[in-house]
Amino acid sequence: MSARTPRAVRLVHGAAALAALAGLGGTLWHGVGDADTALAFGMLVAAGELTRRTGPGNEREPAPLGAAGALAYALLGQNGGHPTVHGVPQVIAVVLAGTLAGTAPHVARGRGPTADQLARRVLTVTFAAVCFQPLCGAGRTAAWAVRGPSYAVVLLLLLGLSALCDAVLAAALAHARARHPSPGSPGSRGSRGAPMGPLLREELRALAGIGPAVCATGVVMALGVAVAGLWALPFFSVPLLLTQLSLRRHALVRTTCRQTITSLARATEIAGYTPHGHARRVAALSRAVGRELGLSEPALTVLEYAALMHDIGQLSLVDPVPGGATAPLAPGEQRRIALLGGAVVRQTGVGVKVAVIVERQADPYREQPLTARIVRAVNAYADLAGENEEERGAGRPLGALERLRLGTGHDYQPEVVEALARVLSRGGGA
């Protein structure tokens, strides 16, 4: 691990490594109990990793089937009506072995999981196993009359706590890497400098996506194996596998849409209407401000698309605006360019929400949606502060922020300007 790795990341990775060593050591020392069950769940986790989604935008849960199988094994108390004998160390060892076996082909192609993802998987499964296996092994579930529907509720509660643990770990790792990003890392774009609160909210909102399906499938797997034995595994795996394949197709569509929007955004740069990289800089800074203000991930995506295409209306101008800066223009001219840009966006089929933001970015802020207020403030800052270090000079970014603050009576929302200032103070504008 590099010495430049943030301390919090080293702590999480170290804890995961200790848990993995303890699991492997304990399993080797005591031997494998219920070998058939261990093999079945290990193969299920490996199969989930083999069918994992790869590519941008799939960093939250790229292998839902593998995650569900791992959690189900951690919460498995019976197999076909007979109590299981595996403990916490064996759960960790089997999940780790299945994960490594399933990710080996992806690693060979250079698309394997990151160290953060592996650490989160190990620690989340360890948390679930530590909460359940000692309780189950001591026979306390029977003593407390935890059976039937109440037993399923207990499993759901433990899985919910495990999902919360994973969300906290993900937010903590993202926060640490955002504060100390490495060149070219995902943390150096968009979430750079983002505080812990918005990152945690974003992770918790993400649980409303594939999270409930993973938790529900994990519970159903554990209950099904407890009653019907290992034959229940393939039957309960098929629905989540089909969902995973559908999510993969959806991710491909989103990737294609993002590439199309990025290409359209570059049209103004190629034509010489805006400086090189202006749209990407405004989009990255807008996304950081939106996260600072607590926008959800879908809203952040719409905001990013609108920021990428906010200057597309300049293509209709006969004479380019000097430097591509629209902030110094008269309000009527700004509004005309914005309306022309919205008309172009509507014809591309990107989405009405994106077109509305582009159209209304020049309106008085009290008449705008929050996303349009963000695009307007960030674009004005980029125009006034300069596009590169040579243009900015000493004090120019501070002067740009001061001009935005002076315009909060009509043009810019004060809360957006202050959120922008906080993002910039953490280096988010780099």
Strand-residue fraction? under 5%
Identify the overall geometry: elongated
Secondary structural class: mainly alpha
Mean pLDDT: 80
Radius of gyration: 25 Å
- N→C terminal distance: 26 Å
Contiguous uncertain segments of 5+ residues:
55-59, 138-146, 181-193
Number of strands: 2
Output the strand order for the largest sheet.
1-2
Please tally the helical runs, counting DSSP H or I stretches of 4 or more residues. Answer: 19
Helical coverage, percent range: 55-70%
Q: Biggest β-sheet, characterized?
A: 2 strands, antiparallel
Molecular structure report:
This protein is mainly α and 430 residues long. It is 68% helix and 1% strand. It has a two-stranded antiparallel sheet with strand order 1-2. Strand 1 (78-79) and strand 2 form a beta hairpin. The longest helix is centred in the middle third of the chain and has 34 residues, at 232-265. The chain starts with 6 loop residues before the first helix and ends in a 5-residue tail after the last helix. 43% of the residues are buried. Residues 55-59, 138-146 and 181-193 have low confidence and may be disordered.
